[in-house]
Amino acid sequence: MSKRIPVIAGNWKMNKTSTEAKQYVSELSGMVAGKQGVEIVLCPPATSLAAVSEMLGGSDIIVAAQNMHFENSGAYTGEISPAMLKDIGVTDVILGHSERRQYFCERDEDLEKKAVAAIEAGLRPILCVGETDAEREAGETEEKLRRQISTDLSGITAEQLPGIIIAYEPIWAIGTGKTATPQIAQEACSFIRGLLAELFGEEAAAAVRILYGGSVKPGNIGELMAEQDIDGALVGGACLSAADFAQIVDFQ
Ligand code: PGA
Fold first, then answer.
1. Which phi-psi region, left, alpha or beta, contains residue 9 (left: φ > 0; alpha: ψ -120 to 50)?
2. Counting atoms of ligand 1 from 1, which one is nearest the CA of 99?
């Protein structure tokens, strides 16, 4: 009975040149043309954002960046600001992907600033959270999710919360082919919704889209989407093929 519109987002990570990106977008656009009842989000690397956003201007497909800085300008070599993303028509931004946390030392304190900066700039954050294998084994999953969400969203108000998408991505399931079972994914997403209700109130929490990410493919999207608190998917590897991604979008 959920009225939340599903979101299927494809995170290309560090894949595809700008030429390949354009080819992909023209293929995918044909495959998903006229598709209703699902928000489709593409997250190309920074070098293709402007081209993809220009190609998709006026279409229903949404363009997201994979990261951004929290300042709008300044001496931050190599970084991209919220204002720069807005200027090229990007509307969404992934924040706190586990690869950013692990390889680029992104901390919850940084994400707290990034979430506020994104909202202030009018960008919709897709905030990623999730536990490692060791944390799950040690029974620390909920503690980890609580710590990440309560810090990363500490500058956000209950009114702003529905404008944020959360992606639950257990690190042990990312790029490993080891998808969380629908039950495990549902349990974590339901815990996240309960936590959001505790922090922001029931109404705001009920409106938030919570995605699952980690080895999502055409063959497992259906069973994941059947779960009550899973409102979509953040897809890595399987989104690199337009045909596979279109099949995932077509989960219903
Ligand atoms: P995967 O990646 O689908 O390749 O496991 C998911 C992600 O990192 O968002």
1. beta
2. 8
Instruction: Provide the residue range defining the domain that includes 191.
Output: 63-70+78-249
Report the domain count for the chain: 1
pTM over 0.90: yes
Mean pLDDT, rounded, for 1-22: 92
Which residue, judged by its Cα, is nearest atom 9 of ligand 1? 236
pLDDT band with cut points at 50, 70 and 90 for residue 1: very low
Domain assignment of residue 168, yes or no: yes
Q: First vs last Cα of the chain: how many Å apart?
A: 15
For residue 16, tell me if it sits in a domain: no
Distance 201 CA to ligand 1 centre (A): 30
Say whether 86 sits in a helix, a strand or coil.
helix
Residue 236, helix vs strand vs coil = coil
Consecutive H or E run containing 213: strand 209-213
The encoded tokens of residue 165 equal: 């998408």
CATH number at residue 160: 3.20.20.70
Distance 41 CA to ligand 1 centre (A): 14
Residues annotated catalytic, as ranges: 97, 169
Kindly state if the Cβ of 214 falls inside 6 Å of ligand 1. Answer: yes
pLDDT digits (tens, 9 = 90+) for 175-229: 888 889 999 999 999 999 999 999 999 999 999 999 999 999 999 999 999 999 9
